[in-house]
Design a protein that fits this description.
The chain is an alpha/beta fold. Strands 7-6-8-5-9 form a five-stranded mixed beta sheet. The protein has a three-stranded antiparallel beta sheet with strand order 3-10-4. It has a two-stranded parallel ribbon with strand order 1-2. Helix 2 links the parallel strand 1 and strand 2. Helix 2 packs across helix 13. About 45% of the residues are buried.
Length: about 300
């Protein structure tokens, strides 16, 4: 998935910029982003909000290849901040084990991530933007309505076929510690035969064409909204939280207090459904990221 797996791809070589010829880094705020659509949307959102607050132009350093390069850029001061996901931060960057099921509440993970970033890297974890991008069990809207299924627990009791749900998953979901085996154990969820494993891009096509009845996707994927699918609520809190949060260097906040104002203005403003809509507008409608974000901010009176 985007938020959990966009980690340590340092095989991509990022061209060196001639930073030695640029003004001192402190003269302009620089915001980074990983190399997928949602990240660029969120990087643009943070950049536009900082520009609105400070009246200064923000440098954008987007399409950095995953969490590892974003972290290196942040720690070295090449960027002042970027948006990360708490579950990814906890496991991939801070190297902490997944908390036991029952101790994965959003607030608990946020506190631990905030404490570790401050003590290890002098980085401030800003308030959540208002949504998570986590694994999501997704079903067709008509099945959800017909069976009265809203949660994963509901799906244990009601199935479209007596033999169980036909499941489609990405390769990673089958092997991850927070993936299929733990999900089955936590919920007692039974599936019809072995899950069909496929590229993530094919999951929703398989669901739409009735080849499977349920897929393990990402909660903010554009096709969920576009095709009328339903994300089942993880009512036992099996998946760890992947809350979208800005990470900003503490020294950058001291030099540019407007960044904190911008973070506070964005806090809690972005729902998962709104992110799905923006991702879809960029990916499927091929709209300009800056325009999509500008419209969203206008709709929120920002």
């Amino acid at each position: 998935m985007h938020s959990a797996s966009a980690g340590f791809d340092d095989s991509v070589v990022v061209p060196r910029r001639i930073d030695s010829l640029r003004p001192p880094r402190s003269s302009r705020i620089t915001i980074g982003a990983k190399n997928f659509t949602e990240q660029v949307v969120l990087g643009e959102m943070l950049s536009q909000e900082i520009e609105a607050v400070t009246g200064e132009q923000v440098d954008r350093r987007f399409y950095l290849a995953g969490s590892y390069l974003c972290q290196q850029a942040l720690v070295s001061g090449r960027i002042d901040g970027y948006v990360e996901y708490t579950g990814t931060a906890l496991t991939a960057i801070l190297k902490q084990p997944l908390p036991p099921v029952g101790q994965r509440e959003e607030a608990t993970v946020f506190r631990e991530v905030s404490r570790l970033y401050a003590s290890k890297y002098r980085v401030k974890v800003g308030p959540g933007l208002g949504f998570e991008d986590t694994f999501a069990m997704v079903v067709r809207g008509d099945d959800a309505k017909r069976l009265g299924v809203k949660t994963i627990s509901d799906a244990v009791k009601s199935t479209p076929d007596p033999s169980g749900w036909r499941l489609g998953v990405g390769y990673e979901f089958q092997s991850r510690p927070d993936g299929l085996r733990g999900l089955e154990a936590t919920y007692g969820l039974k599936f019809a035969g072995d899950p069909r494993t496929m590229d993530l891009g094919l999951l929703y096509r398989a669901l739409s064409s009735n080849q499977v009845d349920m897929v393990a996707g990402n909660s903010t994927d554009g096709p969920i909204r576009a095709l009328g699918f339903v994300v089942l609520e993880d009512d036992k809190h099996y998946f760890p939280p992947y809350e979208a949060v800005p990470l900003i260097r503490q020294d950058s906040l001291q030099r540019h207090p407007g960044i904190q104002v911008a973070m506070d203005r964005l806090a809690g403003k972005v729902s998962a459904d709104e992110v799905r809509g923006m991702n879809y507008a960029v990916d499927s409608e091929h709209r300009d990221v800056a325009d999509v974000v500008r419209e969203f901010r206008k709709s929120k009176a920002l």
